[in-house]
Amino acid sequence: EITDGESGEYGDVFCISASLSGDVGVLHLLESEENLDWVLRTGPNPPYMVILESTLFTRPILMKLKNGSSRVAGVLAVQPTSNPPEGFSPHTSCPNENTGVYSETYGPSYAHCNVTMWNPLGTGISYEEFDFPIFSVKDDNDTEVIRRCYMEHNRAVNGSTPQYPLCAMQLMSHMAAVTDTATCMRRNAPTFSLAPDGVCDPLGDANIWASTKPLNSSTKGHKDGVSVVIAATKLDSRSFFFDVAPGADSAATGLVALLAAASALHNATAELNRTILYTFFNGETFDYIGSSRMVYDMAKNDFTVDLDNIHSILEVGQVALGPDSRLWLHSDPVSKRNSSVNVETLVSNLQAAAAGLNLSLGEPNVTQPLPPSSFQRFLLERPIPGVVIENHQTSFTNKYYQSMFDNAEYLKLNYPPNLTPEEQLELVTDSAKALTEVATTVARGLYLQAGGELAQMSRIQADSELVSKMLYTFLVRVNNSWFDQLVKSDWTGVLSELMLYEINTSERKVKTTEPALMVQCILANLTGSIANITEGNCQDKKMDKDENMNKDIYSYLWVQGPVRPNSTERDSFCVRSLVRQSKALSPAFELSEYTSKNYSTWAESRWSAIKGRIFLVASHDLEMLTLGVGVGVLLMSLLLTYIVSSKADILFSSGREPTNATY
Amino acid sequence: MTAAVFFGCTFIAFGPAIALFLFTIAREPLRVIFLIAGAFFWLVSLLLSSLVWFISVQISNKESAAQQKGLLIFGVVLSVLLQETFRFGYYKLLKKANEGLLTLSQEETMPISIRQLAYVSGLGFGFMSGAFSVVNILADSAGPGTVGIHGDSQHYFLSSAFMTMAIILLHMFWGVVFFDACEKRCWWAVGLVVVIHLVVSCLTFQNPDYTATLVPAYVILFGMGVWAFYTAGGSLRNIKLCLTCKDKDFLLSNHRPR
Description:
heterodimer; A: alpha/beta; Aminopeptidase; 3 domains; 8-stranded mixed β-sheet; 7-stranded mixed β-sheet; 18 helices; 21 strands; elongated; B: mainly alpha; globular; glycoprotein (chain A)
């Protein structure tokens, strides 16, 4: 389809704005970087709407366009048909550098990527402010029409200026918010704003978490005798454009690995003496919204467990295996100096877990800080032993970090096109097999860390078909028969063609969006058990109509179930699990500290319809001529009519009107 | 940006009509009423003809372009005939109303003559016809673009506006001639008015060749204007009198009781 647009997000400065009625500009297909001169200086018909082919969508060109934005009405970026081989990352080169644990007071030599530049390909254009709309289109028939319109009407041949009428384009993506979050939230206050619905919303969604042993969630704060191993990962990502953020390596691999690990551990956790807490954080891309909120809640005794209950943390980061099948265990050099922080046990448990599997684990041989990870937010509060599993030793191996190219193609999920969707769902690709090894490692590592015995470890095995189906669901097609069975029955019809990963904002309060809900449904089905109760009892969250106690411990989900053969009816059933949601809204908005340096302050602007259209524009002279002729006709007719009507009795006097005519 | 084109085309299309309204009709409440009633009659005729056309399109073969073109021609002819029928109906109504008004009013003279009624009703027809012809086009002309991305001429707005101006003035002239012919029972004149109306409407089938449409239309407009002028009581002598500004002296010195 035609257009995507960039959404306006505000933490400090980054935004994109457009005028209320849409920006109109004469089309210009940029042929090379030198051709920019036409747009910025010499072209006779500004403002221009610049069409950028994918090879020209680079930081230098965008910066030049930004500086010449009085002559630029907008940019249309054409998506390439396959990922650019040199890589592309619009994110910053040091992600989340101001909200991590490393600062002037904690490991100052490690702060601001002094030791390792995590995302060296990062250009930072996602965080620049543009005064014109930037849209992205696929390279399909509609784009061909746009190019042809340019070729026929706008192309300057041999230095001659193109003649009117010229082909022009209008892009509409009005953003209501301005300046920064503090200003925007102030304008949200009902007494001030003209737009009664507000101009921007804080970025927020839901974290999904589950425990392996029942925990009473109505009693918050410290729980005696409970020792928790946190297994964390993130479930969101972003890109330069709205709606195309698949986040395959950056989020989906870790997410799928942890879900598969949870499924593998499902039957083995009863005898463990520590509880494993699976946490799927939302909003980590935007300065750790989800994890900072959970840590904040724990510190304030507003969560089921608190920070003293945490024994250790294992985080699963980007785990797409490269050709050498190596994974790296990153840990924090500063807290390791503290003798009470025992990272070695965790590392050796993980090494043991990987024994006999088709991958190798190692620790980086450089003393370097933790990569950007949710674990850093926990370290801000307490020195807790923890490890982050990644597929890179120093800088990211992901060439497309937080861009729209971090997709199924990058992970080499190659489904032959002649297969039906159902056959593709069943196909187990090599990447899925590799990820299964990772999931098994994570599961066994968690088992050992939670007190399991080494001898029992080998019966824990992740299912490669499950991993393959989850990868297919998250990265290729949501609408498939496997996921259909797991989904809540009152939630069908909401799922769209392709998965979006971008964390979404609330309207007025935080609502849970599709990625988090999907994870919740899958996790509930994988770690829960089927409860043989009616739909009514399931919706009311009790086992039978008299029981009331377990509402705070278990959660109940009425699931759609499989289709009965030869019918369209489904065998729905109730799943009882320990999966819960927790609010992922930055503490800065709870405390109304919109300029906080400690917490994420990202907010998203309200926007109206996003669309674009092309048409011809006439020359200014012709329009003024039309107006002149119109005014001339009006004045002439006024004059003539006045003259004729004042002389009417003379002009029409030879009348054959018989009597008493009044004129 | 093309608010310029919007206003330009509006002034072209409705300029003469607004001028006429302002200077000759706006001060007299009775004329205003008959103007609006005339517009309403035209509207009803359009409603009927569009109903017939709509039904016939629904039952026709939507794929065949030739059939659709034929239906369009049929629709135009039917609409013209219905408009003229309603003009005749309005004439009849006005005759009856005039008698009634005379009996009701205190004065001895008729408050409004049939000739004025002819002019006012013709203008009413013209206003409504012009509005329906051109308002959609004006609304589109206010947007940022112009016609032509599929290869059509970019003078569409301008020529539509000129055509509308011609139609409004033509309706006014036809009103004058038609009513006068009905008064004198001059049926060939009535028939000729209908035929000319048909010719002008069918001229538009030559669009987008705008010259072939506009030039004949303006020639006919000029011809009708002359005919209506003579019907309304004008003559070459009166024009000469006006132009040489001898009118007042002439009247005083050659005063004759009428």
